[in-house]
Amino acid sequence: YNHKHNQLFQYVSRTNVSSSGSKVRALKADHSRKYCLHAKEQQEKKKKVQYLKSEINKSLYFFTVWNFGILCILSTRWSTSLCH
Description:
Shape: rod-shaped
Keywords: Membrane, Transmembrane, Transmembrane helix
Largest sheet: none
Radius of gyration: 34 Å
Distance between the termini: 108 Å
Oligomer: single chain
Structural class: mainly alpha
Transmembrane segments: 60-78
Order of helices and strands: H
Number of strands: 0
Strand content: under 5%
């Protein structure tokens, strides 16, 4: 049984290979194309995320500086008004 099965399998795989060799190549090409597209998309996403992060960092920086400045102004005004 096993021997027959193997022979059948070899025959099927041989005929499949001859007919599906081009299919396999096409599939491989398609897969690599998709993979490349996916990689490009991932890189774009990474760029976007990095850009967003830097923008958030900038705005946070300005926000803290701004708040700190307001606090400084308020505290100096408050202390001067206390003194006078």
